[in-house]
């Protein structure tokens, strides 16, 4: 709820990022996921065309994905990895690739990020301050015509600021 996926999407969807990579893929990783489904989804997104992909064994999918990606500069986003074991089951499908290839993932578990690459510095979006939260809530919840020149009606502002406090700085909650 702090904006990890939103931040990753902003990077993923930038024109200069898309132009930099030969192929891109986005995969959502739930707590209960099938590595085979993730691999075949990535293969489809990077342009691989195999009619029998759905019936391929996991090891064949991994081999195929490595073959497709090894000569490309790729960006693969794995959104919302929960466990170290999930990373272990997925990372084996990604070859070194061309210089500049990247696998980026989001996680709510800092230990998973450190486990995946102990040398990296994970990006941790900060929680919003009460003032930032109020600004976000008022921009999204209140149409411009509700605000008078003096500001919002006192009951709107009081209730809104209470909502902000209860949301604890999480943009998604607001």
UniProtKB/TrEMBL annotation:
Keyword terms, alphabetized: Plant defense
Gene3D superfamilies per record: Helical domain of apoptotic protease-activating factors, P-loop containing nucleotide triphosphate hydrolases
NB-ARC domain sequence ranges: 1-145
InterPro entries, alphabetized: Apaf_helical, NB-ARC, P-loop_NTPase
GO molecular function, one term: ADP binding
Domain of life of the organism encoding this protein: Eukaryota
Annotated GO biological process: defense response
Name the UniProt record assigns to this protein: NBS-LRR resistance protein
Source organism of this protein record: Hevea brasiliensis (Para rubber tree)
Lineage, broadest ranks: Eukaryota, Viridiplantae, Streptophyta, Embryophyta, Tracheophyta
